[in-house]
């Protein structure tokens, strides 16, 4: 992958994964100490034989304090490594701009991939509001469409049913799900390592309806777009600190939604409103998950999708 | 649980081992070419202050624990 200024994302990703595992181990140790404390308070309840050593009563508070410190260590570590992911995305974007592979102004988007154990809903793609010439975008989009099947991005579009039935809601905890970062990195690699990716970043990936692109470029979704659009773009990325906002900063519902609607609008029929509602729900939840400052993104998404149907 | 003292001693060792291991990972993160700059420095500082210090405090406290025979 392209060399990134100030950071080697893949190595950092690996370290992140190991740290995450160790945080899990720390939690297990802390749990063991909790049991030690309880067993010392009520030895018979924990099968401690009479005469076996237990924590002295005057040391129970010490053990309690130690458990609290471990709890703080764990929660702080979790918070820090979550922020680390955001740093990676931010660094990748900054690096791309600095190396000329991508312009930040062009790449006015980043990726959020969300996967839950039971139900998966993947949304992605923001859109550029400036910096990319429309003609370039149209040409690039056509090329990107051809590249899509090889990009792996289409793998993210599964399980629409979960989205439609509301099973796939997006919550902040989902952002910690294993694999999310890898998916983000996957797109980053696609963007950095392919000519079309370098040309356009992830802007417009999956779009086929040029009119829709232009409509979005103009900042609105026109009537009739729903008939032609294959992908509905999400909204802006937040490329500013704090880091957590970077990874959370893209609320997007992309390829899967548009593709499904394009392919199944006849089947969906009268339930299209339900589908739209589900989409709006996800968008709203994304907004909630992102935080107060960014709630408008979720609202904007909901509004945008609402206007489509 | 039949041997509280052994379990606690083992836990202390684990906390120290994890702390050392995490410290090693942080050192990897800090290695040349992996991650540098102000954000990286802030992360390292925050980790030391918010994670490492708490783990050290915890293990230090646990080492001071005294034991008595269960009644």
Describe the structure.
The complex is a heterodimer of chains A (309) and B (71). With 309 residues, chain A is mainly α. Chain A has helices spanning 9-41, 60-99, 134-151, 160-164, 180-193, 195-200, 210-217, 225-228, 243-248, 255-268, 272-290, 295-308; one strand spanning 53-55. In chain A, helix 2 packs parallel to helix 5 (180-193), helix 3 crosses helix 7 (210-217) and helix 11 runs antiparallel to helix 12 (295-308). The model of chain A is unreliable at 99-309 (pLDDT under 50). With 71 residues, chain B is mainly alpha-helical. Chain B is elongated and about 55 Å long. Chain B starts with a helix and ends with a strand. Classes of the chains: A mainly alpha (309), B mainly alpha (71). Strand 1 (53-55) of chain A pairs antiparallel with strand 1 of chain B, so a sheet runs across the interface.
Per DSSP, what share of the residues of chain A sits in E-state strands of 2 or more residues? under 5%
> How much of the polypeptide of chain B forms β-strand, as a percent range?
under 5%
- The overall pLDDT of chain A, averaged over residues, is 49
Count the helices of chain A. How many? 12
Q: pLDDT average of chain B, as an integer?
A: 91
Largest sheet of chain A: none
Shape label of chain A: elongated
Q: Stretches of chain A where pLDDT falls below 50 for ≥5 residues?
A: 99-309
| H and E order of chain A | HEHHHHHHHHHHH
Radius of gyration of chain A: 23 Å
Question: Uncertain regions of chain B: pLDDT < 50 for 5+ in a row?
Answer: none
Globally, the shape of chain B reads elongated
Oligomer: heterodimer
Helix amount of chain A: 55-70%
Main sheet of chain B? Answer: none
As a percent range, the share of helical residues of chain B equals: over 70%
Question: What is the radius of gyration of chain B computed over CA atoms, rounded to a whole number of angstroms?
Answer: 17 Å
Number of strands of chain A: 1
């Amino acid at each position: 992958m392209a060399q990134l200024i100030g950071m080697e994302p893949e190595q950092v990703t690996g370290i992140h994964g190991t740290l995450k595992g160790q945080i899990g181990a720390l939690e297990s140790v802390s749990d063991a100490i909790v049991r030690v404390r309880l067993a010392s308070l009520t030895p018979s309840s924990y099968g401690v034989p009479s005469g076996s050593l237990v924590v002295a009563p005057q040391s129970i508070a010490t053990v309690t304090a130690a458990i609290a410190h471990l709890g703080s260590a764990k929660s702080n570590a979790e918070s820090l490594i979550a922020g680390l992911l955001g740093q990676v995305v931010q660094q990748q974007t900054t690096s791309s701009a600095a190396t000329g592979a991508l312009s930040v102004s062009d790449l006015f988007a980043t990726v959020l991939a969300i996967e839950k154990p039971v139900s998966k809903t993947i949304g992605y793609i923001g859109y550029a509001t400036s910096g990319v010439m429309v003609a370039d975008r149209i040409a690039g989009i056509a090329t990107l469409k051809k590249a899509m099947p090889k990009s792996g991005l289409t793998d993210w579009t599964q399980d629409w049913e979960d989205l439609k039935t509301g099973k796939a809601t997006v919550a902040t905890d989902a952002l910690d799900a294993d694999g999310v970062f890898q998916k983000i990195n996957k797109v980053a690699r696609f963007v950095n390592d392919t000519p079309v990716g370098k040309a356009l970043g992830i802007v417009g990936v999956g779009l086929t309806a040029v009119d829709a692109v232009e409509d979005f470029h103009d900042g609105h979704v026109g009537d009739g777009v729903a008939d032609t659009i294959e992908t509905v773009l999400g909204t802006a990325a937040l490329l500013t600190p704090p880091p957590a906002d970077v990874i959370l900063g893209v609320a997007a519902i992309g390829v899967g939604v548009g593709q499904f609607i394009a392919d199944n609008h006849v089947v969906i029929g009268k339930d299209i409103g339900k589908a739209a509602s589900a989409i709006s729900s996800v968008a709203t939840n994304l907004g909630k998950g992102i935080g107060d400052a960014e709630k408008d993104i979720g609202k904007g998404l909901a509004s945008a999708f609402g206007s489509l149907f | 649980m039949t041997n509280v003292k052994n379990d606690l001693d083992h836990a202390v060792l684990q906390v120290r081992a994890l702390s050392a291991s995490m410290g090693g990972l942080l050192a990897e993160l800090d290695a040349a070419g992996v991650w540098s700059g102000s954000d990286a420095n802030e992360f390292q500082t925050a980790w030391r202050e918010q994670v490492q210090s708490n783990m050290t405090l915890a293990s230090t406290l646990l080492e001071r624990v005294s034991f008595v025979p269960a009644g």
